[in-house]
Amino acid sequence: MVHITINGKVIKATEGEMLLSVIRRHGIEIPALCHHEAIEPTGNCRLCMVEITREEWDGWKKHVTSCLYPVEEGLIVSTHTPDVIEIRKTILDLQLANCPDSEVIQKMAEEYGIYKTSYEVVPEGDNCIMCYACTRICEVLGRSAISAVGRGHRKEIAPPFGAEPPDCIGCLACAQICPTDVIPWTDRDNTRTIWDRKFELISCKECGRQTIAREFADYLIEKRNIPREYFEICDNCKRSELARKMGEIVARAQEVAI
Amino acid sequence: MRIDSVDKLNHWREKCLKKRAAQKRKVLVCLGPGCLASGSDEILGELKKILSEKKIKGVSVESIKKTGCHGLCARGPLVVIEPEGIFYSRVKKSNVAEIVETTLEKGELVEKLLYKDPSDEQTIVDYKKIPFYARQQRISLRNVGQIDPDDIDDYIASGGYSALARALNGMKPQEVIDEISRSGLRGRGGGGFPTGRKWATCAGIDSDIRYVLCNGDEGDPGAFMDRCIMEGDPHSVLEGMIICAYAVGSREGYIYVREEYPLAVVNLQKAIDAAHERGLLGENIMGSGFTYDARISRGGGAFVCGESSALMKSVAGEIGEPRAKYIRSVVRGLHDKPTVLNNVETFATVPVIINKGGDWFASIGTETSTGTKAFSLAGKVCNTGLIEVPMGISLREIIYDIGGGIPEGREFKAVQTGGPSGGCLPADKLNLPVDFDTLTEAGSMMGSGGMIVMDNRTCMVDVARYFLNFLVSESCGKCVPCREGLYQLHGLCVKICEGKAVEESLALMERLSKVIQTASLCGLGQSGPNPFVSTVSYFRDEYLAHIRDEKCPAGICRDLITYTINDKCTGCLACIEVCPVDAITGEKKIKHVLDQEKCTQCGSCYAVCKFEAVDIE
Amino acid sequence: MKFRFEVNPSLCTGCRTCELACAFAHAQNQKPGRSRIYPLAYEPDKYVPVACLQCDDAACVKSCMFDALKRNEVTGAVELDRERCIKCMACVAACPFGCALLDDVQDEIVKCDLCGGNPACATFCPTKALAYKKI
């Protein structure tokens, strides 16, 4: 257990915890775009920056991304100093120039009083903010089917060589975690298309409803040792099946009673 | 021959020295990048051809020695004849026969190839007396340009691997670290972190594996110190690395070299192979029981891979992107193991410190920046080339005394130190002593040692635009302030160059710069706005001239200048010939006319005119 | 101290109080769609309450690649950590009883969490067909 001071209040935290979780747990709102509990922090978006100092630093302070800074005994954190707010404002301003159509960014910028970007809108921009959430979640799955490609402003998220990603299993984790919803995918009939690759969706044996991609199921069967038959019917039909079985038990019990 | 003890090394050195003494006459041909580009390999070939055919007393093909960069690149290709140190510059293939006949056969000088001092037209024969060389003090560059990089025995003859022998036999690892700490050596890659402290930290961490890496990813435009060391004296880097490995207890490491330095890769590989063969690298070095092996890791040439954490990722085969370093890479570096990463020049300096002692090194330079520093002198300076000077020397001494001042009698305007993310210092900072702290205080930085001199025909806004453009394309793109911020900063700078900016832009740019500096993830971003910040603080008037008056005082920014032909025009037709868009018309001996509609402001006419008949406004 | 959630289907009258109680407990409204317990008819007019069985070797926990499903050792419930869930649907597909599902109105995965140790359904079940007992 360590003690840190956040905005003047002494707070207890567990060693190894990152500042951002501690700050948020205590009800202080800090914006972040690239942070997600399911993935390793990387500090791409820089929005969660806070100012830290220590008593023995004699007034010297520095700015760190709270998602990546572990709590330390005696740390003094300020989450909303003018400098910190200036950083967040500028970053949101830049992001707004980069993806003016993104509602997520618009909303966040508005919270910091920015309604129109001070900069030139980036031509041919998409709403990708390069947070790497997609590549990181794919890494958690052990697939790394997509990756950041290129450098600087031309950097993009793409499968290897821009072709159909051979390691993709069609799980949609990347599209689901994307904070600005820029990864396109479709489910049509029993085919899922993502990263230009097509996946067969499992159809429920009972009702025909589509569930997850066959390759994702195969992956779970292999990696997590889940029986194949679990994936063959949809959750709806599985519940009805459970009800039917329970009904049978009730009926049998009543028969016995009679 | 395998060297498996210190005695054997000494014995072998004696032998090499004897061989060297037997061959007094040496013809050194510089194969540094500058000379090579102007055809020194042809000179070498011609020399070999002639000497293999001719019989001259005391001279044979054996006398020829190809070396790394000799230093005075502006005068290349260079041929130096030992033992006298006769310095022949701007040698052409056609001069070789004359050199052989006159100097090697008759012992006379080829006057036209000798160095003439521009200030007093005095001819200087011995290169050591040329001001460019005379004022230098070479430690990390001690062998560069002097020895054959491919010949390990030449290195050994020059005292090579004696520091390693000294360290392995008779010094405890801690003593090596203490010696380096005492020398006050600070990292030559740009950060200036005390090397001894870095090594001590690494050695102090409990770990089964430690790595020693060499950063050869020199990527600053106009910087070539590390390149010249890797190409011209690869063994000194290796020796430094092995000593470091011994000190911190590492068994393996990598030299990270960019693919753009093919000769450095080749020479380093040859050096590694040769050191292996001699038993100076690999298992049981010099019979001491200590084992260390180094391999080359080739980088793709991304500027950001010079940043420590990005470099380590690149070595590990991942995307070369920096990570946030709340845990320093010396604690958790390559493959998450403690790692010492030093730059080429730092490692090349280490053997000298071990041999001559930390106190000796600390006696050179200033109190906080000890020793010497190599610089590559480039831009608008007479003696462009590779130099090494004691820390604390003034910029003026470097630029005027060693560099020979500004060519064509133009005026000095600024000097850019520290690479693209360094800063430009104006004339009133010329007396500043060059050391880590002073340069940082002045708004620039030491960086890895690139030094670009600019004259009054340089537009500072254009300079900022150029370097920002470089940084925008070299930003890894991971974090927002650097990727988006530098992109926007560059965009605003371009607007100023085009005369489309408003005065408020400057304030916006300054605010943006501050955020990029504090909020970026790695050093590239944190120092990214420096080209703008330093130029706007020292040359604000020039920015304002672009914005308010839509004028480029230096006559560089195309959209803000017009070329006109004045009455000095003699009608020589030269400009008509070079104009790529046929904007100039006229006849011989009649003043030419420039069509402003067609003119693209390329400046070709201005450059070609011998009569100052083209005006820029 | 350990608890067990018990269902006695023969006592179920199909009154659907559990459904309303669950929806209210989890979404502060009484829309049956928000419920994590599902009274289903196995014959016309004959109902059983279907809800997560908190399996010992739970397929949902195994299927989650992001450690978003974890067992609460006190209540015995497999709980969903919304902060870690990315709605990849693995648990929905893997649960053999169909008791983890996507609520597409709230856009989140829902499954029974035993209300943190005080299940509303059991509290309000008028016939005690649902019970949360000490073991």
CATH class of the largest domain in chain B: Alpha Beta
Low-confidence stretches of chain B: none
Task: Summarize the main sheet of chain B.
Answer: 5 strands, mixed
Helix proportion range of chain A: 25-40%
The radius of gyration computed from the alpha-carbon positions of chain B, rounded to a whole number of angstroms, is: 26 Å
How would you describe this protein?
- The complex is a heterotrimer of chains A (258), B (617) and C (135).
- Chain A is an alpha+beta fold and 258 residues long.
- Chain A contains seven helices and eleven strands.
- Chain A has two domains: 2-111, Ubiquitin-like (UB roll); 133-237, no CATH class.
- Chain A is 31% helix and 19% strand.
- In chain A, the strands form three sheets. Chain A has a five-stranded mixed sheet, with helices on both faces.
- In chain A, strand 1 and strand 2 form a beta hairpin.
- In chain A, helix 2 packs antiparallel against helix 3 (103-111).
- The longest helix of chain A is centred in the C-terminal third of the chain and has 23 residues, at 235-257.
- The N and C termini of chain A lie far apart (62 Å).
- Chain B has five domains: 25-82 and 86-125, Glutaredoxin (3-Layer(aba) Sandwich); 152-362, Rossmann fold (3-Layer(aba) Sandwich); 372-458, Ubiquitin-like (UB roll); 461-548, de novo design (two linked rop proteins), CATH 1.20.1440.230; 562-616, Alpha-Beta Plaits, CATH 3.30.70.20.
- Helix content of chain B is 40%, strand content 14%.
- Chain B is built from 25 helices and 19 strands.
- In chain B, the strands form six sheets. Chain B has a five-stranded mixed sheet. In chain B, strands 2-1-3-4 form a four-stranded mixed sheet, with helices on one face. Chain B has a four-stranded parallel sheet with strand order 9-8-7-10, with helices on both faces.
- In chain B, a hairpin with a 5-residue loop joins strand 13 (412-417) and strand 14 (423-426).
- In chain B, helix 8 (173-183) packs antiparallel against helix 9 (195-204) and helix 18 (460-474) packs antiparallel against helix 22.
- Chain C has 135 residues and is an alpha+beta fold.
- Chain C has two domains: 8-51 and 118-128, no CATH class; 57-111, Alpha-Beta Plaits, CATH 3.30.70.20.
- A two-stranded antiparallel sheet of chain C has the order 1-8.
- Chain C is globular, with a radius of gyration of 14 Å.
- The interface between A and C is large, with 43 and 37 residues.
